[in-house]
Amino acid sequence: MAAEILDHWVGGAVFTGESTRTAPVYNPAKGVVQKEVRLASAADVDHAVATAKAAFPAWSEASLAKRQTVLFAFREILNARKAELGAILTAEHGKVTSDALGEIARGLEVVEFACGIPHLVKGEYSENVSTGVDVYSVRQPLGVVGIISPFNFPAMVPMWFFPIAIAAGNTVVLKPSEKDPSAAIWMAEALQEAGLPDGVFNVVHGDKESVDAILDHADVASVSFVGSTPIAKYVYERGTAAGKRVQALGGAKNHMLVLPDADLDLVADSAVNAGFGSAGERCMAISVLVAVEPVADELVAKISERMSGLTVGDGTRGCDMGPLITREHRDKVAGYLDVAVTDGAELVVDGRGIEVDGDADGFWLGPTLVDKVPTTSAVYRDEIFGPVLSIVRVQSYEEGLELINSGRYGNGTAIFTNDGGAARRFQREVQVGMVGINVPIPVPVGYYSFGGWKDSLFGDTKAYGPDAIHFFTRQKAVTSRWLDPSHGGINLGFPQNG
Ligand code: NAD
Fold it and tell me: Who contacts 297 (Cβ-Cβ below 8 Å, separation ≥6)?
């Protein structure tokens, strides 16, 4: 029997398009292809953009109350049926059920933020800036906005953007990851059920060809991208060269700095949760623990002990950790363990060949702990994006801080200490966009904005929260005078206040 093919969603209906290219979508816990996904051509993207453009005039004219009503209804659907969406995430991404539900909950926060759109797009008003002259500002939508998302959060990352984009009156073309594309279609159907007019939210599946078509399209006003750093940089440069506003969030290598006075049990729990949750395939995962001596030996013992209790397997079976996304990615991550040994690090816990509660063909790699990692090693420098936690030993706070600040990424970081002064100093001195103090994964709540510094974000605008209102609207300033009959007559000078 031919595999099911997942099509695009354009104009409120399934859209097949002209492209016959497809890519496999795996169930990573079973190692089998469960469906194929259509890969759009430039012409298919053009059709989606034209549809979104046609829907824009009516949607941007829809009242704030109407837009808010749709978002509230979407929130209700998402909440009531999150188990359905969670099952899709587990089947295509592999993350365990509880983690899939957590991802949806974080997306829901942004939907809830967007429900407040009437308040969020309020302008400013200054009366009588000059005699009889008022100035005020309004925020208006951009038009068609593009969203390009990664495999690791197939529901949450699109929800970082589209609820606010839509609430602000834009229409959307989403290009989700081709590795786990079904969540996007589920959300498109849910938005339709919530009363969103057809054509406001469209999904095109694809790879580089469709991304390039979005970046080059004259009718796409902005691009919100999340993915690896090389592609984020490429998207930023090509999109801005085409005159669009672009926010492009990239990769990460997040460090946790542990001072000797920290609660080491809390540190060990946090390192295990943040290092191995979602098999380390999180942009906010902790991948390096920087231990200020003399605590490293004790920490390695506590972390290894906790790791021995972790269960790895099919995400539907109540395990702690699922598989990696593809066989190639699993092999690439496992390859770093050889590099670690060659480079002189100590492989304390080796995740290869662990027993799993799942199919033998799944893309498995167990939690791995590598101690004494040289900072010259690729294991330290590269974003591995898997369940590999590195320990680097330093002698002082200053040495740890310098290490963190010398890296190319600046997404998230954390300090663990009981010294308020040290924590405050770290918060001020660290060159990273999101900082945790005794919190390992400091993802900001929905009413703050999410984003890193340096090679973790190209552009000046973070995701969701207040930055998103700025990104998805254009501000217009209006200077208004209702003339009385005695206006000043002809004056060619530049207007002055008075
Ligand atoms: P990726 O860069 O491979 O893909 C991201 C998107 O870009 C996908 O939609 C993909 O189809 C598209 N793409 C891939 N190659 C392309 C190319 N050559 N030209 C144009 N488009 C291309 O990333 P991924 O593997 O899906 O996701 C993991 C990466 O995302 C990690 O680096 C992770 O750190 C990062 N990430 C960052 C954040 C953040 O907030 N900073 C959040 C989640 C994930």
Answer: none
Most informative mutation of 180, 205, 207 for ligand 1 (most atoms within 8 A of CB)? 207
* Helix locations, 195-311, DSSP H: 208-216, 229-241, 264-276, 296-307
Ligand 1 centre from 135 Cα, in Å?
Answer: 43
Hey, what CATH class is 5-250+456-478 in? alpha beta
Domain ranges of the chain: 5-250+456-478, 254-437
What is the rounded CA–CA span in Å between residue 488 and residue 496? 13
pTM (whole model) above 0.95: yes
Residue nearest ligand 1's atom 16 by CA:
208
Tens of pLDDT, residue by residue over 115-134, are: 999 999 999 999 999 999 99
Q: What does the alpha-carbon distance between residue 482 and residue 446 come to, in Å, rounded to a whole number?
A: 41
What is the second-level CATH architecture of the domain 254-437?
3-Layer(aba) Sandwich (3.40)
pLDDT digit string, tens, across residues 302-343: 999 999 999 999 999 999 999 999 999 999 999 999 999 999
Question: What are the residue numbers of the active site?
Answer: 283
**Which of 25, 174, 231 to mutate for ligand 1's pocket (most ligand atoms within 8 Å of CB)?**
231
